[in-house]
Amino acid sequence: MPSTTSFLYSSIRTPFGRFGGALSAVRPDDLAAHAISALLETTPGLHGGSIGEVVWGCANQAGEDNRNVGRMAALLAGVPTEVPATTVNRLCGSSLDAAIHASRLIETGDADIALAGGVESMTRAPWVLPKPVRAFPAGDLLAPSTTIGWRLVNPSMPAEWTASLGECNERLADQTGISRDRQDEFAAASHQRAAAAWDAGFYDDLVALVPGVDLDRDESIRPATTESTLSALKPSFRETGTITAGNASPLNDGASALLIGSEAASAAIGRAPLARIAGRGVAANEPPMFGIAPVLAAERALKRAGITWSDVAAVELNEAFAVQSLACIDQWGVNPEIVNAKGGAIAIGHPLGASGGRVLGTLAKRLVESGDRWGVAAICIGVGQGLAVVLENVS
Predict the structure, then answer these.
(1) In this structure, CATH architecture of domain 7-124+250-393
(2) Is 350 a catalytic residue?
(3) Is 168 considered catalytic here?
C-alpha cells in the first residue's frame, strides 16, 4: 500500500560562495555531486541502491549544468547507475520544488527513499549565442548572459512582465510603502544573525566544505554590516529608488541536498526522521509581483497541514530582496523575530537552484534546536510564482 506520509531525514549544503569567489573554479555538476556525497556520508548505513530516485533542481542549465545535471551529479557522486534521476526547473524555487516532488514520490508509494536538492553556479553561467535564421548574418549578434534574469525574450511577452527583478521590487516598494530605512534594517539583521549563527556552531553540521577550496563559511556574510553602512549605498535600479546591492540578495554559487523517505525507511536509512512534510503550497500571480507569491503559497501549505499561523514557531523565507521579504511578513502578520533567525539569503547568499534546499534544511534544524513543533519554508520565484512547505518536528 502507498505510504501517506513523507519525512525529511537529513540535509546538507556547501558553503555558498560569492560571484567570482572561492567556488568560481568548481563546476556546478561537481558542486552537486559533492553535496550528494556529503549527504550520503551522514547516513553511512544507507546503501545507495536503496534510493528510489534523485530529484534535482537547477535554474540555469545553459552551461556545465546542462543535460539533466541531477543525473550527472548522481553518477559523479557514485550513486549506483540503476538509480534514476531527473532535473526540475522552477527558477529560484527549483530545489524546494525538487523536495516537493520527492515527497510526492514517497507519499504515492513510488519510492521509499528519495534524494532531492539543487545547484547553481552563477559565476560559471555562460553567455549564449543564439543561432541566426540564416548562416553568416551581416549584422552583430548579442550574446546574453545567463547568470540571472530574462534573456532571449519572446517579443509577444508583455513588456511590463519582463522588467528586471530589481525594477519589479521597486514597484512592490511603491505599492506597499516599505521604506528604504526598513529594508536596510532588515538586511543588516540578516548579516548579524547569520554571523552569530555561524559563530555559535549552528551551521557546522549543515554545511560540508568543498575539497580543495579555502572556504569554511558562507562567503557573502559581512558581520560588521549595519543599517548605517547600508544607507550609504546608491540605489541599483532607479536613481531615487530604495533597492541597493546591500538590501538584495547577491549572486552566488552552491549546492544543497536533502534525504526524504517514508516512516518505514528509517531502518534502511539508519536514523530517525527530523521532520514530517506536513503541507505543500504553490501559487502564481502577475509576473512583476513575484515577490509576494509566497504569501498565498504558505497559506495553502498551512491549510493542507491543518494548522494556522498561530501554530507556527519558525519561518525560513528566502530573502531575494528585503522589500519582498518584508511584504510577505506583513501580509502573514507573523512576528518578524521568528523569520530567518539564523540569517537569510541577503547575507548567506542565493545560488538560485540551491536556495530551496537550504531554507528547508535550516528550518528542520531550527525546529530540532528549539523543540518547537511547526515551521514554514517559503520562497519567491521569478515570473510570478511562490512555493512553501510546512514541516512538523518529529525528532
Answers:
(1) 3-Layer(aba) Sandwich (3.40)
(2) yes
(3) no
